[in-house]
């Protein structure tokens, strides 16, 4: 048996998946959160494992950790080997990377975006927002560094009050999901083997070929003042204008970048 370190695994995953990305997508390392060595690594104690009361009935797949499962109801994934439904358990979607098929496409003015490549029903788990788990101090430090380095998009979202997920250098396809003030998706926090993780879920039925979008206001640590181009009637003018990251820290982007309009700052403070 050969054991690989997490960094080598990430590189291997990238090599395997690299060809699936369209030409022109800026480089990043594709990871899934299970392989990723995160900051909050801790061993799950047996007494902390929540075990549901589902009893699998071969005639009814719903019985194996469906909507009524006590763990599902509390946004907690079942722990393999402890779930009474064993291999029939359907509540390990983050752990098994059960993502919907999605496709990258080039948007008009918003960089790359992500499309649904199959029909998705309201409430379904689409993909995990993967990335490096970092502290709030590190999030602030990196945010400044990325600006200095000229990184245009912002890929940091909040995980809980102390931690953030940074998908700038390492992440899943979820890092390409754009913001909309009228979203068809939302982020939800789940507990997976004792860790908090962020999933993108459908807010409504989504047809194949539709762009996936969620509202950045709740989780985004954007920093920069970016004019929102979502086109919704109720558009809040700036990306993440109501997010904590926005109020904590913001700045104006360089003149000449068509996505950033400094004069809108005035509009915002006039409100
Ligand atoms: C998480 S990334 C989304 C993927 C990004 N479009 C790309 O090409 O990598 C967030 C960045 O996308 C752009 N973006 C996302 N939604 C937008 C919107 N509604 N209006 C303008 N820019 C948007 C902004 O540059 C933002 O910093």
Automatic annotation (TrEMBL):
Top-level taxonomic group: Eukaryota
Keyword Nucleus among UniProt keywords: yes
SMART domains to which the protein is assigned, alphabetical: AWS, SET
Molecular function in Gene Ontology: histone methyltransferase activity
Chief location of this protein within or outside the cell: nucleus
SUPFAM superfamilies recorded: SET domain (SSF82199)
Name of the protein this chain belongs to: Uncharacterized protein
Originating organism: Lithospermum erythrorhizon
């Amino acid at each position: 048996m050969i054991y690989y370190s997490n960094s080598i695994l990430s590189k291997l995953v990238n090599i395997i998946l690299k060809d699936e990305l369209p030409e022109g997508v800026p480089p990043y390392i594709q990871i899934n959160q299970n392989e990723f060595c995160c900051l909050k690594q801790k061993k799950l104690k047996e007494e902390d494992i929540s075990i549901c009361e589902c009893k699998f009935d071969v005639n009814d797949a719903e019985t194996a950790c469906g909507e009524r499962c006590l763990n599902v109801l509390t946004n907690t994934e079942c722990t393999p080997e402890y779930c009474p439904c064993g291999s029939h358990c359907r509540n390990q979607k983050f752990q098994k990377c059960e993502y919907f098929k999605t496709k990258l496409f080039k948007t008009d003015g918003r960089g790359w975006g992500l499309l649904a490549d199959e029909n998705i029903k309201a409430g379904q788990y689409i993909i995990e927002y993967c990335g490096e788990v970092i502290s709030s101090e590190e999030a602030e430090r990196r945010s400044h560094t990325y600006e200095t380095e000229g990184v245009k998009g912002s890929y940091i979202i909040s995980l809980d009050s102390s931690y953030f997920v940074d998908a700038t250098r390492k992440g899943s396809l979820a890092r390409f999901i754009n913001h909309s003030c009228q979203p068809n998706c939302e982020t939800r926090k789940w507990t997976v083997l004792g860790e908090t993780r962020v999933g993108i879920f459908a807010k409504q039925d989504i047809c194949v070929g539709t762009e996936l979008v969620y509202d950045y206001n709740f989780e985004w640590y954007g920093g920069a003042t970016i004019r929102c181009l979502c086109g919704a009637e109720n558009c809040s003018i700036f990306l993440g204008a109501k997010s904590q990251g926005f109020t904590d820290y913001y700045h104006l982007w360089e003149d000449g970048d068509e996505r950033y309009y400094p004069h809108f700052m005035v509009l915002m403070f006039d409100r």
